[in-house]
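Reposting from the mailing list since nobody answered there.

I have sequence plus structure tokens for a pair of proteins and want to know whether others read the tokens the same way I do. The first protein:
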Amino acid sequence: METHPTTEPDPAPDEAEAAPRRRLPAPLAALGRAAGITALAIAIGYATHRWASTGMPLSPLPGSPWPYLTAWAVLTFPACLLLQWATAGVDYDGRWQLVVLPVYAGIRLSLAHHPDPALIYAYGAAALAAGTAGTALWRRRLRRVDS
């Protein structure tokens, strides 16, 4: 085999690690994180429906879980976006547990009692509206203090 003197050798591992990583735009990254957390919560909820009917408390009732999982997915996505907006500039551990744990508890209750999905949407929308208003007031107060 013939080597060409004009070809550059592969970069050393240190050089490859030192190269800057390309980052996604912030809005696209926020949408991706929200979609990922929503998918995770719904997958856990579906697993609960499939495999949790073993006589444990809050065992799912027979019937389709999809109206309830859809309702929780529709509410989880904006809840994740709200959490990212509320905690912008704050870095701490356990941020996503603030969304995943209540959603999982809601899914378990929904699958165990089968309430009307319209109630889930209504209460979820009210909670999101209250959370959005509270976050907006809190961020406004922070801006006043910073200026």
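The second protein, same order (residues first, tokens after):
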Amino acid sequence: MSAINNLQLKQIKDITSLNDVDYLINMKLNKEYTLHVYEKKKQIYFIDLSDSTKVDDEYLYNYTILNGDEFFDALKDIIQ
């Protein structure tokens, strides 16, 4: 979790194909989210699944990861 807390993100408008996703993470907090993580492009997309009938900009958050080394190392450790 500290790797997620330390992420520095910059919001972007770019959309990347779901076929290129490296990691898919489902999370439930106060809402349900899916995180699409693209290691090569250093991007992460948060999709708010709390209302699955709506898929528009209001529910899709796209970011470039500015400092992802610790985050990607943590993901690789979890997968192994």
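Reply #1 (J.P.):
I read it the same way you do. The mean pLDDT is 81.
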